[in-house]
Write a structure and sequence with these properties.
Two copies of one chain form a homodimer. Chain A has 17 helices and 16 strands. By secondary structure, chain A is of the alpha+beta class. In chain A, strand 12, helix 14 and strand 13 form a beta-alpha-beta unit. Chain A is elongated, with a radius of gyration of 28 Å.
Chain lengths: 494, 494
């Protein structure tokens, strides 16, 4: 009887569609920009601000209507199913943190943090991701091991391109394993989870790129980069998914102060990608193998590849030396999933890695808890799936109503309510018009438009005979049924 | 196979318990207060602020751990099931709004709104409830009818008593019907929904108090209150659920400037409660019946009672003239549910009413959409159920793991991973230890503690024979099974 709350949008039998979902979003975005411009112009002219309320959501945010929510909940439900298959619990943390909790965790992106006004009391900021609050949670509760997922919205004062699906308020969808465990065992499971999630969401072909922060450090050392420039060079390499090598090279030389030959050596390394054979080739690189961190990093990648093979995801993973990940806190394996289909554009749909020192930043004795985790880029996944649904012309049902109770004559609204009571008591999802008198045709049309499968019709004749008419909306076939067997008949048909 | 994500905590077969859940919360609250005091003392002594990070969540907020989340999600799932049974869609709005959207909606409570810092751009505030954002959503989208639920957190800079379960960040759980409909038809369904939700949550006996804003206005007029004092007197009456009549009377006279005889007349009215007979008695009150709003309000209550009877909730509702509801925006029927069991204390667990003019406040032409809605006080419901679970000594499972894969000897961790791959591919919820070598006893103990029903054990003997040992955790019975029939055997037992 009880169906899971999040599966409706994906039931193939319910392929209705809202063909204009994306374009509506675009129009709303443009209108909102124009409105804001208009408001600003008013200010600049020195005129009195218009007394009319500017009716919009804050910049970079949006409302989610019923169609969008149905898709989102269906996506999140599939992801939660995967997380639970791997034994995860869930937790929640406040939407804001004491500002000092976030300080020093995000490097130059800290300027994007939303602060709350000082209204007397603590200085607070909205959460920027779910990882730092998770680390704070572990340190505060002295929790030494947990496998948890957390799905919630995070906030970044970015200048997002809302038409490309980037917002200032957006969902994150994280799974992390904290605890002192043996090498690569939790890490490999994270890769498997990304793969399972993308598979179950049916977003098309994908690849998971792998690399290791220690190996990158070894490469930078072998290329003659001084160790205090490792993080800066790393963040330059991270831009290779958006910028060309020549742009990144320029940044390394002009902004990070690298000499040309170091940059070119790095350029040769970060163009490499492959599988086990790349690992063997790097092992033969005597210059690189002089550096302990390169040796350790490579050993880790090799073990991870072995485990990926056992967990049957080798065909999805690729060892890619250009993968760097922006965040400072990673200390080991890093990974990132991209869609490789023709029509989906570029960009990551999942990412993560190992961060063994973050929890220690919250502990007075610097005691840390090793962690590895992944984050699914659900906003991009929503976009890809919305585009796909639009193309297919499919319609998403936004309610789960099974039965509509209609009347064929006037002044029978109390009879409708009596019948509804019986249906609700039996757990049937049912509704009626809230108007006392409404044309039968209008009631039937509503059912066809909203995809309600069954209609129970009562008229004076039916009442006199102790019957109801049961109509199948799709076939428009009607049968008379004694009131006493109505519930049974409805259950049979659903 | 797929189970609903939110039902686990309520499955009677899984009555484990965390007996110390509430007391842990209390301890955490006290520790956090002490830490804050300590930090402030440091400041006052003029010493340098301690470099150590104060490890706490912001005042009035908390983390929800796995046990608390399991209970919360189970409660919310039951509520969503009821909302969906009545045909509701869901929407979501941003956690913050442009400040002007919230201005002038909450009366003197506006001081409790959290503002964001002005970081250049719009002036924003965190949402204070879900009703005002809903009205903004309707006006902005020019939506003339919708039946929607919205479950999300809201923010109030109150001085909450966290030990009594009141917080600055808390869930609201709203269901509203917007649209131009016939009198009391949606209103009566809201009452039915509150009743269904409380029933399904098994919180014990409850009553739903009803009243009508127009009737209250009529009463105030009949008692000689000038119309500009209606709202002020109304908010005094609203305090009758916490304060005695003599306190409220004092407020009316000393703060609201009412004369004693008016106050005493009001006192006589607001002591009345009952059912249909109270309606008849008020009809005979000639003085009251001179006022059109009293006549209209009473007619509405009578019709609502009639519909409540048809919807089979009359035994739960009570017409109570002391019910006033604090918020300014109500215009018609108001209602509030309270628990009446011996051991649950006082306080409302649901409330709501009709607010026909709120949407119009956002429309430039003042065009409004009539609305009626309810809000379930889930934080109080969580508390009541946590206390109940503690008393019963029940344990809530926080994961849904079905099978634990264990090894009986050393160096078999790759075999565990191979088997896990097969289980995950088949959709079985399964996990292992992330340590290569771990004692069998420790693995079995973990399963007993965390309520995992089945263990698959592999040792060298099993591997040689192409078998596994399947252990039932509760009975500790073990059987040998060929690997090929493992999935089938697991499915049979779950």
């Amino acid at each position: 009887m009880l169906r899971s709350m999040w599966t409706n949008a994906f039931l193939p039998a319910q392929k209705y569609c809202n063909a204009s979902m994306l374009s509506r979003q675009k129009i709303a975005d443009e209108v909102s920009k124009l409105l804001e411009l208009k408001a600003r112009l008013g200010d600049k002219n020195g005129e009195e601000a218009p007394s009319k309320l500017l009716l919009k959501t804050p910049k970079g945010t949006r409302d989610y209507g019923p169609e969008q929510m149905a898709l989102r909940l269906a996506v999140l439900d599939k992801i939660v199913t995967v997380f639970k298959k791997h034994g995860a619990e869930t937790i929640d943390t406040p939407v804001f943190e004491r500002k000092e909790v976030l300080t020093g965790k995000y490097g130059e992106d800290s300027k994007l943090i939303y602060d709350l006004k000082d209204q007397g009391g603590e200085i607070l900021s909205l959460r920027y991701d779910l990882t730092v609050p998770f680390a704070r949670y572990l340190a505060m509760g002295k929790i030494s091991s947990i496998k948890r997922y957390h799905i919630a919205k995070v906030y970044r004062r970015d200048n997002p391109s809302t038409t490309r699906g980037r917002y200032r308020e957006f969902y994150q969808c994280d799974f992390d394993i904290a605890g002192q465990y043996d090498p690569m065992m939790p890490d490999a499971e994270c890769i498997r989870i990304i793969s399972e999630a993308l598979q179950s969401l049916d977003v098309g072909p994908y690849r998971i790129k792998l690399n290791h922060r220690l190996l990158l450090d070894g490469i930078f050392a072998a290329c003659g980069v001084p160790s205090d420039k490792f993080r800066g060079v790393c963040s330059a390499v991270d831009k290779l998914d958006k910028n060309s090598w020549s742009e990144v090279r320029k940044e390394m030389i002009e902004e990070k102060g690298l000499d040309e030959s170091s940059a070119d050596k790095i350029g040769a390394y970060v163009s490499l990608f492959g599988g086990m054979e790349l690992i063997s080739n790097l092992r033969k690189d005597d210059e690189l193998m002089k550096y302990e961190s390169a040796v350790k990093g490579l050993e880790s990648v090799e073990l991870l590849f072995k485990y990926c093979d056992i967990l049957r995801v080798t065909d999805k993973v690729i060892f890619d030396l250009s993968l760097a990940r922006g965040l400072d806190y990673y200390t080991g394996v890093i990974f990132e999933a991209i869609l490789t289909g023709d029509d989906v554009g570029v960009g990551s749909v999942a990412g993560g890695g190992r961060y063994d020192n973050l929890v220690g930043m919250f502990d007075n004795k610097n005691k840390s808890i090793p962690c590895v985790g992944l984050s699914l880029g659900v906003e991009r996944i929503f976009n890809v799936l919305e585009t796909k649904l639009n193309k297919e012309g499919a319609k998403t049902r936004t309610t789960e109503v099974e039965v509509f109770v209609a009347t064929a004559q006037k002044n029978l609204h109390e009879e409708r309510m009596k019948l509804l009571s019986i249906l609700w008591d039996a757990g049937v999802k049912a509704e009626q018009s809230y108007k006392r008198n409404v044309k039968l045709l209008a009631q039937l049309q509503y059912c066809e438009e909203s995809g309600i499968p069954l209609v129970v019709i009562i008229g004076e004749g039916e009442l006199a005979r102790g019957e109801v008419t049961l109509r199948d909306v799709a076939s428009r076939a009607e049968v008379s049924i004694p009131r006493a067997s109505l519930i049974q008949e409805i259950r049979k048909r659903l």
